């Protein structure tokens, strides 16, 4: 929208760079171009403002396929006014000289023209396409057909309109049909998921079986090694017992030999001592063969006295002394 200011009956217009301004007075064109700025009188001026920038026109319409299924088409058409003079001559782009606002609705007219033209070509291509094919290739087919139809539409160049691009974002069936179409795909996806789950479980079971077999093989190997260990321990114990028995036998034999030798030595010593004692006794007896009995008695008493304990005092009664003297006197005549 142009910016218009008032000054004592005069008006000043300042346009945007993307707006083409046309100023007529008395049927003559005084100003023509984008981004203009000039003074004018409101009573004699005829102004029009034509946008020359690229504009997006979003459209949504319904169509029916060859199998009588309704679909919703969402598209966007990018366009611009390539000939502002022609567009201003064919459509009402005039603006109020006091406010700068369009007197009519030219952009709505352009939108209606583009929408109806695009819808006509989209309906034509979808009417010969079944729903399944439309959902698969319909977006591309509709875009190409609409773009070709807009390029070939004679009303657009005659109005000064250039189509820059056509985009089709979506082509959707009715919600009930869409749910029905999704069901097989969902079931297939669910089947794929179930199959993947079963395969994953099978792989897990196979891995568990492999692990169990490995554990069992490890246990068998461990048991075999334990058996070998027990057998080796038994062999070692038997060998140790045999060695201990052999050592005990050697030790016993050595002790027996030593005992025999000791007994022989003791016997030899006893015999030697006995012989020595016998010889000493014989010599002692031989020495006293010719000694008188009284002398022997005296020696015996002497020996006996030597072996008697010490006697501090001895009391002899007269009866003992008398008997003793009597025995001594009785033995002297012999």
Write a concise synopsis of the structure shown.
This protein is an alpha+beta fold and 334 residues long. The chain is 59% helix and 21% strand. Helix 2 packs across helix 3.
How would you describe this structure to a colleague?
The protein has helices at residues 84-90, 106-126, 131-152, 155-159, 175-287, 293-307, 318-331, and strands spanning 3-7, 10-14, 19-25, 28-34, 37-41, 45-51, 55-64, 70-81, 161-173. The longest helix is centred in the last third of the chain and has 113 residues, at 175-287. It is rod-shaped. Helix 2 packs across helix 3. The termini are far apart. The protein is of the alpha+beta class. The strands form 3 sheets. It has a 3-stranded antiparallel beta sheet, with no helix packed on it. It is built from 7 helices and 9 strands. Strand 1 and strand 2 (10-14) form a beta hairpin.
């Amino acid at each position: 929208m142009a910016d218009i200011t008032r000054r004592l009956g005069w008006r000043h217009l300042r346009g945007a760079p993307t707006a083409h301004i046309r100023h007529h007075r008395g049927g003559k064109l005084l100003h023509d171009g984008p981004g203009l700025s000039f003074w004018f009188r409101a009573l004699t001026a005829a102004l029009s403002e034509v946008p020359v920038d690229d504009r997006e026109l979003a459209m949504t319409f319904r169509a029916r396929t060859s199998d009588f299924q309704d679909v919703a088409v969402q598209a966007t058409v990018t366009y611009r006014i390539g000939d502002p003079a022609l567009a201003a001559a064919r459509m009402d782009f005039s603006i109020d000289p006091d406010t700068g606002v369009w007197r009519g609705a030219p952009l709505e007219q352009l939108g209606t023209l583009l929408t109806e033209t695009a819808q006509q070509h989209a309906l034509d291509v979808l009417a010969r396409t079944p729903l399944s094919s439309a959902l698969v290739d319909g977006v591309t087919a509709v875009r190409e057909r609409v773009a070709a139809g807009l390029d070939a539409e004679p009303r657009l160049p005659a109005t000064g309109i250039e189509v820059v691009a056509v985009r089709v974002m979506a082509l959707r069936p009715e919600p009930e049909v869409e749910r029905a179409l999704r069901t097989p795909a969902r079931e297939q996806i669910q089947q794929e998921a179930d199959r993947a789950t079963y395969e994953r479980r099978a792989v897990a079971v196979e891995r568990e079986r492999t692990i169990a077999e490995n554990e069992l093989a490890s246990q068998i190997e461990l048991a075999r090694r334990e058996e070998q260990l027990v057998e080796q321990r038994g062999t070692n114990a038997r060998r140790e017992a045999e060695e201990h028995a052999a050592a005990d036998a050697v030790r016993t034999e050595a002790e027996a030999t030593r005992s025999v030798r000791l007994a022989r030595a003791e016997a030899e010593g006893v015999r030697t001592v006995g012989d020595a004692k016998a010889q000493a006794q014989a010599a002692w007896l031989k020495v006293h063969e010719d000694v008188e009995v009284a002398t022997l008695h005296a020696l015996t008493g002497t020996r006996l006295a030597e072996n008697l304990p010490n006697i501090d005092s001895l009391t002899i009664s007269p009866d003992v002394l008398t008997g003793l003297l009597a025995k001594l006197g009785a033995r002297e005549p012999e």
